[in-house]
Amino acid sequence: MQAEHHGYYLSFASRIFIxxxxxxxxxxxxxxxxxxSFGHAAFVGTGAxxxxxxxxxxxxxxxxxxxxxxxASSLAALAIGAVSLRTRGVYFIMITLAFAQMAxxxxxxxxxxxxxxxxxxxxxxxxxxxxxxxxxxxxxxxxLAALAAGLYGLHxxxxxxxxxxxxxxxxxxxxxxAIGFPVYRYKLACFVIAGAAGGxxxxxxxxxxxxxxxxxxxxxxxxxxxxxxxxxxxxxxWGGVIGAAxxxxxxxxxxxxxxxxxxxxxPNYQQHASLGVGTVLLAIVLFAPQGIAGMLARxxxx
Amino acid sequence: xSWILIVEQSLNGLQFGLMLFLLAAGLTxxxxxxxxxxxxxxxxxxxxxxxxxxxVQATGxxxxxxxxxxxxxxxxxxxxxxxxxxxxxARDHLSQVLATFALILIFNEAxxxxxxxxxxxxxxxxxxxxxxxxxxxxxxxYRLLIIGVGAxxxxxxxxxxxxxxxxxxxxxxxxxxxxxxxMGVNIPRLFTLLFGVGAGLCxxxxxxLGPLFAVQxxxxxxxxxxxxxxxxxxxxxSIRGALVGSLLVGIVDxxxxxxxxxxxxxxxxxxxxxxxxxxxxxxxxYLLMALVLYIKPQGLFPARG
Lengths: 302, 305
Known about the structure:
The complex is a heterodimer.
Chain A: H1 2-32, H2 41-56, H3 62-84, H4 89-108, E1 119-120, H5 136-158, H6 161-171, H7 173-179, H8 183-209, E2 211-212, H9 219-232, H10 239-256, H11 260-265, H12 273-287, H13 291-301
Helix pairs in contact in A: 1-5, 1-8, 1-9, 1-10, 2-3, 2-4, 2-8, 3-8, 5-8, 6-7, 6-8, 9-10, 9-13
Chain B: H1 3-34, H2 41-59, H3 62-83, H4 93-115, E1 118-119, E2 130-134, E3 137-140, H5 141-163, H6 165-175, H7 177-182, H8 187-213, E4 215-216, H9 219-234, H10 239-267, H11 270-295
Antiparallel strand pairs in B: 1-4, 2-3
Helix pairs in contact in B: 1-5, 1-6, 1-8, 1-9, 1-10, 2-3, 2-4, 2-8, 2-9, 3-8, 5-6, 6-8, 9-10, 9-11, 10-11
């Protein structure tokens, strides 16, 4: 009974780490780069599907599967970014959305790998070294390590010359161009790095649940990632982590911990969690656009 | 592959295109004048369909139900604009995207709570039969009604925008908002009205397409993306662009889905054709959008010249 309990929370924590990594990768292009991409789910989904396909075809090693996932999503980001970054403003949003939908429909029609029913995996990828990722504890550490690597990478990137240029581009693209920075190339590089990290998150996601289906690529998943970023604090290092933890925590709280007085007023409120999520998101956008990290930072300074 | 099939699918495309136009028109004006991305437009479409389904059941008449749903949705749209959306005009696009995405979540759940996951809405008995258009060719009467209503609304909208004073103000606002404000146009009030009209148009589309596509929670999202593709292709802020764009998208999408798999079947092996055909057909409109953006990045008929 206790072991079961531990397993549940370890699994839940792993899920938070994975989404935190995905949200952090989006934060790089959204928060630091100022690029409103509504197609980030395409990269997470590409990573998820590539690693799943390899696993289902018998390639069990994570040392092959996960780098392959990262490579595939980087390529996808390169292709999509190369075309999309030639546009700006709402056209960029629309074209990233369109590409994500294209990926969704393409994957949906891949009957060989489950089509719209998705692909189930018999077991998680294996890392060898005497570690069995099938155990929740081991996977927990793997996901944590990936997230830590991602956060460290973002921290170094943000404080590097590259990071400063990207933020300058976010602040005033025309001025950055006038100064002489090859803006398009910087944005594309940023886009690809974020796509790569997103792909890793996708690979982990697929292994974690031992299941993947086209909904991972749906544009509403891109929206969910954006919610996490804005909730946590767009452009702040811990924004993705805080946002993922807050959103997934809120959903779990609503679904699994019944508040009796609320249920008395509003029976089966637990099935309508997204109403609460939507309201919280709207409130954050209208009243606290800097997100949770922003509110914490302000309090520190005040 | 008979000519009858081609004509039939072309009519289907025309019908879908005209309904898309009803959504795209409202969306492009909102975007063009207030520079606001409104993802909740699809939710108004959904609300229109649910309201129509409810009113049809309550009144027992399809026509009454649909006609009553239009002002009801328009009022709800105007309430939404005055309360929440107005605060977003001054904000950046990201905030607008996120806030209206939040509205989608809220509307979807609210509809689910009030009505449930779906509502029945069927083609009225009087229109459920086929009509003979040409010797040897029949076409469903209901779909002809949609084409008729769509064309009539498009015509009325054209008259409104091109020939009335209000339409002139709308066009002025779309091409240069600051100048229109400086000229003394009451942009906020005009805009609320415009939003109401847009919501009403969504209701028409939602109510008419309901019997064909199923009235269910989440029905707004799929058509919303297509509406955005339409206005990007047509040019933001332009009604004419929205019309051309929606007809193009409607016809390309319908004919593509109908004939591309067949076409692939001629050139490729059956296994490849049956997988690749539908896949490419479903992304055809996005490829069209990418092509238009590449050739004419401002869209086909940009309002801002």
